[in-house]
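Researcher: Good morning. I'm working through a list of sequences from a screen, and I'd like to move beyond sequence-only analysis. For each chain I'm collecting a predicted structure so we can compare shapes side by side. This is the next one on the list. No need for commentary yet; just the structure.
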Amino acid sequence: MNIFEKTFNFGKKKRVPDGLWSKCPKCANLIFNKLLEENLKVCPKCNYHFVISCHRRLDFLADQGSFVEFDKEMVSADPLNFSGPKSYANKLAEAKNKTQLKEAVLTGTAEINKKLISLAITDSRFIMGSMGSAVGEKITRIIEHAISKKIPVIIVSGSGGGARMYEGMFSLMQMAKTSGALAKLKEANLPYLSVLTHPTMAGVLASFAGLGDITIAEPGALVGFTGPRVIKQTIKQDLPDGFQTSEFNKEHGFIDLIVERKELKSKITTILDYLT
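Model: Good morning. Structure tokens for this chain:
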């Protein structure tokens, strides 16, 4: 370094600490993380709704301190002893370590503006929120609890995976089991609100996520059975703009309401007022 560089402090690279900023996947805007958190992980420029954890969603959806978790220790077995380059046991261990969850769904009772509900929230960070036997069992039990206590059910789905192939038929059975439990809920004349977030796909959508009395989605969420890339390759045709987004599905009658994250709690409260 020469005398000129020393005098004006050139050559010294100032390093910005990691973890202060996030880049929006939609508009590429850099967002200060504190601002992003205050805005419930929604981009202030383009309104892109970031994927969030089940616990973060619980924080702003349920009344503070009202959540009581059910079946916290329930975990998936490995009925097929699935092996290969990445065994099922290893994938489960990695997912548990990454998310600090024991399964891909959080279930329990909570209050939303002092209204008691049964609540389930899936988490796409845990093997894409796919449905194994533990996920199906936990959701079925929380629905059965709602029937016994005569309270509404709300399930927030964020599952890019469907039935968990590592469990074979045991996983596929959960589609019928959760659907059967919801049929019993309907017989009891108790409301079920299904909230679809990005992404909600495959067997999850084809079972409990697609059976709401009222179906709500966050803006821009990917909602469908098979991904658009696979569909395009199969039918050999271009797909419509916005295919499988919340907006596309609402336009075609599959979704009832699109609600922004910051308005979700108040909107659910209003709907429950009508239905109960």
